[in-house]
């Protein structure tokens, strides 16, 4: 009896195993034939949405790039009928890439470079609104768009916003509340599952992980009081090196302005570090923001360089060579004007041009020298330096300050060289005695007419 039961149980068990095997085989077969999607299939969501050029539900415009800003912001050339001035400042819908134009965040430069390279290689770019009008973002100066592109290898447009999401180079930003919301959310979910870029534990190879706050010179200059006594790191081009101080500036595509700061390195920097600070070098500076009470301005100090520790994130670092100071040509009205700066996720800020351009190179022409003053204090290192009061061709008064100047014969340059003359100057905007002035570092920086 017991033996018969065992035989029946064995047959039933074998039958169950056969049925289970058949069911699993069917499920597998169905997946291969498209009956159900395999669990680990990667989907190209950027290609899954289609640009409908015939639809009247949205506005569409073929564009070219005016300026590359960062991963989710580009300025496009458009007809005047689309935007007065012919430039539309586009903020990409549904995405928020890490920062690379203010405080710099991991994966920010990677996202910025990806957007730039993708658009550079495009044969056609089309921007699309989310409805039947061009909608401004919260700043009021940029417009929320979908960006589509195609290349020489394909006649089909791809959605760059969604492509950036599926690569993990952006986080969600109202990603569900738009015409392609479902696809955006699916792209984000896939990037998280695949642990791509900002969704991973991997370190960004373009981001120097140190104790300093990574930022741009624009961010530092516009918000300098926020970084009082903070350790910061930034890149820029050395434009002048004088009296143990290097002047560093950088151009910002979004505002079209130059931003700079003076870097006081004192007497503690060795020869290799000083070589890095040669004029014309693009460098990475790491130092502390300090307020110089005597001069009444902020500078960066405490820079260091150790050849024995080349990978130290606190080191001065040479990025590239062969650059030249800009010496932006400015008239009197511009020099005396106020400038309004749009800041990400903040209210616009209005600042004096000279304050914003402090420590950057500048050129002015046709200045009439109306007054001169020479420093005569015996115990001053500036004995012989001259302050010039000048009138610009458009009737504005500006101050020019020289270091102690000598001509090609080694003779001291005095007030007579300038007084009553018309001059062109190239210098750096500095702050002295509660006023902004243009500082000259060489007699060759002046053309006397």
Overview in brief:
The chain is an alpha+beta fold and 449 residues long.
Give the class from helix and strand content and strand pairing: alpha+beta
Q: Can you give the helix content as a percent range?
A: 10-25%
Main beta-sheet annotation? 5 strands, mixed, barrel
Mean pLDDT: 89
CATH level-1 class of the largest domain: Mainly Beta
Strand order of the largest sheet: 1-2-3-7-5
Looking at the structure, the CATH topology of the largest domain is OB fold (Dihydrolipoamide Acetyltransferase, E2P)
How would you describe the overall organization of this protein?
This protein is of the alpha+beta class. Helix content is 20%, strand content 33%. It folds into 3 domains: 46-199, OB fold (Dihydrolipoamide Acetyltransferase, E2P), CATH 2.40.50; 213-320, Beta Barrel (OB fold (Dihydrolipoamide Acetyltransferase, E2P)), CATH 2.40.50; 361-448, OB fold (Dihydrolipoamide Acetyltransferase, E2P), CATH 2.40.50. It has a 5-stranded mixed β-barrel with strand order 1-2-3-7-5. Strands 11-12-13-15-14 form a 5-stranded mixed β-barrel. A hairpin with a 2-residue loop joins strand 1 and strand 2. Helix 4 (160-166) runs parallel beside helix 5 (181-193).
């Amino acid at each position: 009896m017991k033996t018969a039961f065992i035989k029946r149980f064995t047959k039933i068990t074998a039958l169950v195993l056969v049925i289970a095997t058949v069911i699993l085989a069917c499920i597998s077969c169905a997946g291969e034939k498209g009956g159900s999607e395999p669990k680990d299939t990667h989907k190209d969501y950027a290609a899954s949405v289609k640009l409908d050029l015939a639809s009247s539900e949205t506005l569409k415009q073929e564009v070219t790039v005016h300026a590359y800003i960062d991963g989710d912001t580009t300025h496009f050339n458009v007809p005047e009928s689309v935007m007065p001035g012919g430039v539309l400042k586009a903020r990409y819908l549904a995405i928020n890439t890490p920062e690379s134009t203010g405080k710099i965040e991991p994966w920010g430069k990677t996202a910025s470079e990806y957007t730039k390279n993708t658009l550079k290689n495009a044969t056609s770019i089309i921007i699309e609104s989310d409805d039947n009008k061009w909608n401004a973002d919260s700043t009021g100066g940029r417009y929320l768009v979908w960006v589509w592109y195609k290349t020489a290898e394909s006649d089909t447009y791809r959605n760059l916003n969604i492509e950036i999401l599926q690569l993990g180079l952006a986080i969600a930003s109202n990603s569900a509340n738009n015409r392609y919301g479902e696809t955006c959310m699916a792209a984000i979910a896939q990037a998280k599952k695949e642990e791509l870029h900002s969704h991973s534990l991997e370190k960004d190879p373009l981001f120097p992980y140190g104790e300093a706050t990574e930022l741009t010179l624009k961010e530092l200059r516009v918000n300098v009081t926020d970084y009082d006594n903070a350790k910061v790191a930034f890149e820029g081009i050395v434009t002048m090196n004088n009296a143990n101080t290097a002047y560093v500036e950088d151009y910002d595509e979004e505002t079209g302005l130059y931003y700079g700061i003076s870097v006081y390195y004192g007497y503690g920097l060795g020869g290799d570090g000083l070589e890095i600070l040669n004029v014309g070098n693009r460098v990475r500076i790491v130092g502390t923001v300090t307020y110089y009470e005597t001069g009444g301005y902020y500078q960066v100090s405490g820079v260091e360089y150790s050849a024995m520790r080349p990978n130290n994130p606190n080191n001065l670092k040479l990025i590239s060579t062969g650059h030249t100071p800009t010496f932006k040509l400015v008239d009197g009205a511009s020099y005396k004007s106020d400038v309004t700066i749009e800041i990400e996720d903040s209210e616009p800020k209005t600042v004096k041009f000279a304050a914003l351009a402090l420590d950057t190179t500048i050129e002015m022409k046709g200045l009439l020298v109306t007054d001169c003053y020479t420093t005569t204090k015996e115990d001053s290192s500036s004995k012989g330096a001259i302050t010039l009061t000048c009138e610009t061709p458009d009737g504005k008064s500006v101050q020019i300050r020289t270091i102690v100047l000598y001509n090609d014969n080694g003779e001291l340059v005095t007030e007579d060289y300038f007084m009553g003359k018309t001059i062109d100057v190239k210098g750096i905007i500095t702050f002295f005695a509660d006023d902004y002035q243009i500082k000259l570092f060489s007699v060759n920086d002046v053309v006397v007419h």
